[in-house]
Amino acid sequence: NAGVTQTPKFRVLKTGQSMTLLCAQDMNHEYMYWYRQDPGMGLRLIHYSVGEGTTAKGEVPDGYNVSRLKKQNFLLGLESAAPSQTSVYFCATTAVIHTEAFFGQGTRLTVV
Amino acid sequence: AQKITQTQPGMFVQEKEAVTLDCTYDTSDQSYGLFWYKQPSSGEMIFLIYQGSYDEQNATEGRYSLNFQKARKSANLVISASQLGDSAMYFCAMREGRRTYNTDKLIFGTGTRLQVFP
Question: Which residues of B touch A52 (CB under 8 A)?
Answer without folding.
Answer: none
